[in-house]
Specification:
Blueprint (H helix, E strand, L loop, with lengths): L2 H11 L4 H8 L3 H8 L7 H11 L3 H5 L8
Length: about 70
């Protein structure tokens, strides 16, 4: 799964459309769409806003597996 696919999956799991996520996060819909299609990396502050609206960590939002210590 690509980073964009993970982001789209997180949004859909939250039951939000692109428009709803954009409105709640104060981010343009086309920016979110480009990030989800892997056409744009996205600024870290934008990714942070989106993850916050979804109530998950940035790692979860981008589909990054964090190794456990131990």
């Amino acid at each position: 799964m690509t980073r964009g696919e993970a982001m789209r999956a997180a949004r859909k799991k939250a039951g939000l459309s692109l428009e709803e996520l954009a409105e709640r996060a104060g981010v343009q819909k086309n920016t979110i769409g480009r990030v989800e299609r892997n056409e744009h990396v996205g600024r870290i502050d934008t990714i942070e806003l989106l993850a916050d609206v979804l109530g998950i960590s940035i790692d979860e939002y981008i589909g990054r597996e964090v190794p456990s210590n131990g």
